[in-house]
Amino acid sequence: MDELIDILDTQGNYISKRLMKSEVHKKGLFHPTVHIWFYNKNGEILIQQRAASKETHPLLWDVSVAGHIGAGENIELSAIREISEEIGLNVLEADLIKVGVFKSIKTLRDDFIDCEFHHTYICELKVPLGYLKKQESEVKALALLPLSIYLKELQLNSNSKKYVDHDLLYFQAIVKAIENQL
Fold this sequence. Notes:
By secondary structure, the protein is an alpha+beta fold. The chain has helices spanning about 20-25, 75-85, 145-155, 155-160, 170-180, and strands spanning about 5-10, 15-20, 30-40, 45-50, 60, 65-70, 95-110, 110-125, 140-145. It contains 5 helices and 9 strands.
């Protein structure tokens, strides 16, 4: 879905310019996104398999919930909106624990350069997996994996291409933040 989003400079600052998401990707302009990683007290992490119809990384496993921040939208409210849309869960702003902001540049095609600043959160999943309602247009499947198994599979990802590729420092920050909550 195309939507109006804010443009950022290379340091992640808003520059008072907005464009449609499709144009932003075509031009390789920086823009803000939210990533929310859910975990439970059993040391498991919620991962999402992206829908087959997704323009980027179809059918690969990725962050629990992610999305673009709409133009002028509050970052935390964007995270709450994306959680509700993608997995049908209502959370409060107080439930979100900010891990940090991570710069990411990925050239997916000549006409699709994804330059993002991921505002990244963790959140405790307090309901069983079966309670979640996935948004069919975005999410093919949801799974809970023990954090240790997830980390081992990430190390093998260069061969299997099962997961969306993210920077190692990004994953290390997520894991450390979750371990600090367990």
